């Protein structure tokens, strides 16, 4: 993986975490939507952030030249 590709993926991960973190904050403060609506979106946020963390880990391993599992 090239440095440019890694930087791109790191930016995508950062953007994903930022967007979902803001959404979660807004969902926790929101009283116009029901609990189910908020729970679904917060669950989606947790899943997306987990994917982002996995992507970060994979890129870091590839850039360091560590063997893959």
Keywords, please?
mainly alpha; 69 residues; single chain
Structure characterization notes:
By secondary structure, the chain is mainly α. The chain has one domain. 83% of the residues lie in helices and 0% in strands. The protein is built from 2 helices and no strands. The longest helix has 30 residues. The protein is elongated and about 50 Å long. The two termini are 17 Å apart. The relative contact order is 0.17.
Distance between the termini: 17 Å
Mean pLDDT: 91
Q: H/E series, N to C? A: HH
Shape: elongated
Counting DSSP H or I runs of 4 or more residues, the number of helices is 2
Number of strands: 0
* Gyration radius, rounded: 15 Å
Query: Helix amount, in percent?
Result: over 70%
Q: What structural class do you assign from the helix and strand content?
A: mainly alpha
Topology:
Layout: H1 3-29, H2 35-64
Helix pairs in contact: 1-2
